[in-house]
Amino acid sequence: MPLFSQTITDFWREPFLNGDVLYSDEVFTVAINSDLSEDRRVMVLETSDGRVMAVLTPALADKLGLYQRQDLSEPTFRRKLNEAGVTLHGADYLFYFSEADKNVLLQENLEGVLCQLTEQDDAVFSEFQSSASEQDLDDAYVELDHWAVFGSFEQNRLVSAASMYPWENAQIADLGVLTLTPFRGKGHARKVVRSISKYACDQGYEPQYRCQLDNQASTSLAKAAGLTLFGKWEVISPDSTD
What we know:
32% of the residues lie in helices and 28% in strands. It contains 8 helices and 11 strands. It has helices spanning 6-17, 58-64, 74-83, 99-106, 122-130, 134-140, 188-202, 216-224, and strands spanning 20-24, 28-32, 42-47, 52-56, 92-96, 115-116, 148-154, 157-166, 172-179, 206-212, 228-235. The protein has an 11-stranded mixed beta sheet with strand order 1-2-4-3-11-5-10-9-8-7-6, with helices on both faces.
C-alpha cells in the first residue's frame, strides 16, 4: 500500500513534473511551468524522503539565467533566487493521513463526541473568537463560514474549534485549528482535528494540515492527531522584489 493517497501525490507532482524539466538528479529537480499563477510563480517542495523539487515560470527562469542541461544544486538555485531579489515565504510543513492511518480514522466512532458548527452557532463562535488573541486568530484561520467547522466544548463553552475549506480546486481540504489558551493540553485540539478530518474523508476529501516549521506545538498536535509529515513547501513571498 502506498504511504499517501494518489490524490495527494498527484496534486503535488502535477505542477512540478508537468512542466519542462531543466535539471534533474537523484535529489534535486527544477522545472519550468507556464501554467503557474502569479502568486505561485516559484515553489519548492522537499518531500519527507529528502528529495527537493523546484518549479518556476519561464519568465522567472529567464531572469535567474536558468537554461537546460546546466549543472544545478539546491544551494545554487537558492543563491540565484536571492541574487535576483526573489524571496520565498517561510516554509510550511505539510501533514496528511497515511492510507493506513486514514483507514483507522474512518473506523473510529466519533459520533456525539464533538459538535459540527453552523451559522446558527454565531453567538457561541463570536464569544470563542473574542477570547483568543489576534495572533492566534491570524495563525489558525478558523472561520465559521468555512466549508466545515467542528468544535469542542467544556461546561457549555466553545474552547476549541477547527475549520476546513477545499484547497486549490483539488479533493484536498486545508484545516486550521485553534484552542483557547487555558484549555490547551487537554486533548480538545486532537479530537476536533480527528473529527473534522473524518468528516472530510467521508466527503471524499484528503485532510491537509499545514504549519510553520518553528511552530512546535502545532507540529506536535499534527502527530498526536495521527497525521504524517509529507514534506516542506515554500512559495514566493508576497513581498518579493522580483
